[in-house]
Amino acid sequence: MRVAWFPMIVASLAFTYGPAGIQAASFLKLVGSLDRLGGLFALIVIREFAPLVCAIVMAGVVGTAICADLGARRIREELDALMVLGIDPIRSIVVPRFLALIALTFLFNIYALLFGTFGGMLVTLSNSEPLGPFFATYFTNATTIEFAGLAPEDGRVRAVIAIVACYKGLTAKGGSEGVGRAVNQSIVITFLMIGAIDYVFTQFLLATNPELSQVR
């Protein structure tokens, strides 16, 4: 939490207020429908940006830290020493980090939702518009299905980040250079998996719930 909370806040605000918010507000203002910005932000933040930003920050900050820590322990033969003492390194070192990353990602996903929505509020205020229409269309589109679909996608991403980081750390070899190589491979593989999971799950969610594609 100490190393990831500030990047999470900055990334959430930057992604939602910057490219998404400003561009969307410019288009809606052009057609005279800026009051629909809240509904658009409900889809942007809940369905895409909150889990995506959370996954990227957690993989880039926490996942790499776990991979580097486990890799350094492997290089220094600490894991082999634990096994000689009869201590299972998977149970005593890997599992606590796995569970901690999953729990922390769930908490930070709430942060991403809150500050992503706050980015939409800033866009509305910067265009001199009241917040009432923003929240009215936001809560119209922020349905139970949207939030229910967020949980399984977020859970799969959390598990992938933890598994890849732990596996690459445990299999690191080649000294300090090998640890750096393992961390680099971990972040690349994790980002590719995040994109693949996001694509597959979004397609599945829209196919099984066609009402989500309707304008509300």
Could you explain how this protein is built, in words?
The chain is mostly helical and about 220 residues long. It has one domain (about 5-215). Helices cover about 85% and strands about 0% of the residues. The chain contains 7 helices and no strands. Helix 4 crosses helix 6 (about 145-170). The longest helix is centred in the first third of the chain and has 39 residues, at about 35-75. The chain is elongated. The two termini are about 35 Å apart.
How much β-strand is present in the residues? under 5%
Care to count the β-strands?
A: 0
How many distinct helices?
7
* Helix-strand makeup class: mainly alpha
Would you identify the regions where 5 or more consecutive residues have pLDDT less than 50?
none
Which value, in Å, is the CA radius of gyration?
Answer: 20 Å
Key terms:
single chain, 216 residues, mainly alpha, 7 helices
Lay out the secondary structure.
Elements: H1 5-30, H2 37-75, H3 78-84, H4 89-126, H5 131-141, H6 144-170, H7 175-208
Helix pairs in contact: 1-2, 1-4, 2-4, 2-5, 2-6, 2-7, 4-6, 6-7
Short summary:
The chain has 216 residues and is mainly α.
